Amino acid sequence: MAIRGAAATKGLDGTIYMISGWNVSYTNVLLAYNTTSDAWIEKAPIPNATWIASAATGDDGRIYVFGGESSGLFFSNKTQIYNPSTNNWTAGADMPTSR
Questions:
Q1: pTM for the complete prediction?
Q2: Between 90 and 97, whose confidence is greater?
Q3: DSSP secondary structure string, 32-86?
Q4: Gap between the Cα atoms of 34 and 69, Å rounded
Q5: pLDDT tens across 48-65, in order?
Q6: What are phi and psi of 45, to 5 degrees?
Q7: How many CB atoms lie within 10 A of CB 49?
Q8: Hey, what's the torsion of the CAs at 6, 11, 15, 20, to 10 degrees?
Q9: DSSP 8-class letter at 15
């Protein structure tokens, strides 16, 4: 599947995460790339699909996804947080403005 506009970040363990993006429509895919085994693994999908979002890994090991463009061509102020240890997503505080 070709995806453009995905967010990406590197986890504390060296895993590279490719998050959401666009492929004919918004996709909520979360893929993890293990550099040691040279393999991609699909993880829990992001709750609110977005493209051109930003992502960063926090000191706590969780992955924070900020903003992006979501359904209806609107920029988002959402913060979505992925925990690689539990393979679950939670919502963070909304940003003051959309990005």
A1: 0.92
A2: 90
A3: EEETTTTEEEE-PPPSS--BS-EEEE-TTS-EEEE--EETTTEE---EEEEETTT
A4: 28
A5: 989 899 999 999 999 999
A6: -65, 145
A7: 20
A8: -20
A9: -
Q: What residues contact 24, with CB distance under 8 A and at least 6 apart?
A: none
**Closest among 95, 99, 87, 96 to 32, alpha carbons compared:** 87
DSSP 8-state secondary structure symbol assigned to residue 95: P
Q: How many angstroms separate the CA atoms of 11 and 25, rounded? A: 27
Amino acid at 56: A
* Structural domains in the chain plus CATH codes: 7-91 (2.40.10)
Q: How far is the C-alpha of 30 from the C-alpha of 43, rounded, in Å?
A: 5
What length is written for the chain? 99
